[in-house]
Write a structure and sequence with these properties.
With about 350 residues, this protein is α/β, with parallel strands linked by helices. It is built from 13 helices and 12 strands. Helix 10 links the parallel strand 8 and strand 9. Helix 2 crosses helix 12 and helix 3 packs parallel to helix 4. The longest helix has 21 residues. The N and C termini lie far apart (about 50 Å). The structure holds beta-D-galactopyranose and calcium ion. The site of beta-D-galactopyranose has 12 residues, from helix 2.
């Protein structure tokens, strides 16, 4: 045999062997039911059209792939978009259950529908993980196999308020534009009735008033977590209040960026102090550019990791408490942190 042919043969040998093995009646060589080493996780989103949720999904896909390699199993992730419609999402849940998925992860559209989802999953004997949109505790406790993974909204609201408090204490004149000793603010709220919107709205301002800072609310409105809606709303506020607005609290980063869009579009000189929550990639860029003052990490990566780890434990029958840090047998609380220009490098991907 010539050297070239020998080289070629030795390169082909592994695939020829694999092909030969596949002729043997072994499982895993195509066709038939999924082998037992495949975990099938159904992920139902309230909407795909949400920057933070999209980044949770992206992280989940990456983490699932890493887990496949590390654990030597196949992680079959199926993600569906509820398009902000609870009826659509319930049908999607039914479909996952009918197809025998091993674990369901649900980002519920309407938290008052949680009990229905719990009952469906329990009847099918399938463990259920709610994430990001928190059902009431009573619904979580309806069944042993129900979990919630999320971030404490009160805590990250307080941290958002403290971002502003620190700026006020360090250099009041930089924040207090009209020098009246009162902090004039506007509030951009997420969806009405959403736990994160309610608590962030309340606790961000409370961090200032608790510290003795006098505040005055000029305006507040819901913009449903949405950048475009926030931008339209703030354009109106600009007409009404102009540079009287000293601080804009926003329940999330997308709306904070929408506020900045409006200021830029109006050519309105100096930006007020704008703060968000999430630490999405565009928000980090805006902090780097000196536009968004700061944000509070809503840990998309940690959330994804916890969902993958918990799903795997529930599928394999391992004690969930060994896989994730579980509180009260049902809750995984992720840590949160402030982000400003000072510590931005800790959050930018290397
Ligand atoms: C919040 C997040 C928002 C939005 C919302 C959806 O936690 O800050 O950006 O994603 O969840 O439920
Ligand atoms: Ca003032």
């Amino acid at each position: 045999m010539s050297q070239t042919i020998k080289n070629c043969f030795s390169r082909l040998l592994p695939s020829m062997l694999a092909a030969a093995l596949c002729l043997l009646p072994l499982a895993g060589c195509g066709g038939g039911p999924e082998p037992r080493d495949t975990v099938r996780v159904g992920v139902a989103l309230y909407t795909q059209d949400d920057t933070f949720i999209a980044s949770v999904v992206q992280n989940m896909e990456r983490t699932a792939q890493e887990t496949e390699t590390d654990a030597g199993i196949k992680f079959n992730l199926s993600v569906v978009d509820g398009r902000n419609n609870q009826t659509t999402q319930l049908e999607q849940v039914d479909r996952f259950l009918a197809r025998g998925y091993d674990v369901l992860c649900v980002n519920i559209v309407d938290r008052t529908a949680a009990a229905v989802v719990v009952d469906k999953a329990q009847e099918a004997g399938v463990p259920l993980i709610f994430f990001n949109r928190q059902p009431v505790d009573e619904d979580i406790r309806r069944s042993e196999q129900v979990y919630y993974i999320g971030v404490d909204a009160q805590g990250n609201g307080t941290l958002q308020g403290r971002l502003v408090l620190d700026a006020w204490e360090q250099d009041p004149s930089a924040v207090d534009r009209n020098g009246d000793g009162v902090l004039q603010y506007a509030m951009l709220e997420g969806e009405p009735g959403h736990q994160d919107a309610l608590l962030r709205t309340e606790y961000s301002v409370k961090a200032l008033t608790d510290a003795g800072v006098e505040v005055e609310k000029l305006a507040s409105a819901t913009a449903n977590w949405n950048r475009g809606q926030a931008s339209s709303r703030v354009a109106l506020w600009l007409e009404e209040f102009g540079d009287q607005i000293e601080v804009i609290f926003s329940n999330n980063d997308d709306m904070a960026l929408g506020a900045i869009d409006a200021f830029k579009a109006a050519g309105a000189g100096q930006l007020p102090l704008v703060v968000g929550v999430d630490a999405t990639a565009p928000a980090l860029e805006s902090i780097a550019a000196g536009e968004l003052y700061g944000t509070v990490l809503n840990d998309a990566d940690g959330m994804a990791q916890a969902m993958v780890d918990l799903s795997l434990a529930l599928w394999s029958g391992e004690d969930p408490a060994d896989a994730v840090s579980l509180e009260d047998g049902h809750y995984v609380w992720l840590p949160y942190r402030q982000v400003t220009q000072e510590n931005l490098s800790d959050f930018l991907e290397t």
